[in-house]
Design goal:
Elements (H helix, E strand, L loop, with lengths): L1 H25 L10 E6 L3 E6 L4 E9 L9 E5 L3 E2 L4 E4 L6 E7 L1
Antiparallel strand pairs: 1-2, 2-6, 3-4, 3-5, 3-7
């Protein structure tokens, strides 16, 4: 019985080290947009971002508010987080209501 307890404790200790190592080694996500990134609007309705180098990025768009001018006149949308040359997309609810587009993260 004593050997079983020691094995369980050793297994828990090793699992804890692996878990801590993965958290410590991951680092924090960079809040700086990488160099060589572009944002491209599509038909006044959506936009996408892509980067020439490695790094996280997201497209951020604003669209004209079609349901009520009293709600501020526009609303914001963010695309999916993307890495490097992958594309981050976002779209407005109604065609031709794209107001502005930029890249963030």
């Amino acid at each position: 019985m004593n050997a079983t307890i020691r094995r369980a404790a050793a297994g828990a200790f090793v699992a804890g080290l692996v878990g801590v190592g993965s958290v410590v080694g991951s680092g924090a996500a960079s809040a700086v947009v990488p160099q060589g990134c572009t944002t491209t609007p599509i038909s006044g309705t959506s936009a996408f971002s892509t980067c020439a180098t490695d790094g996280w990025h997201r497209v951020h768009i604003t669209c004209w508010n079609w349901w009520s001018a009293s709600a501020g006149g526009w609303y914001e949308r963010w695309g999916n987080p993307a890495w490097g040359q992958q594309q981050s997309w976002s779209s407005c609810d109604v065609p031709f209501t794209l107001r502005s587009w930029d890249i963030t993260f």
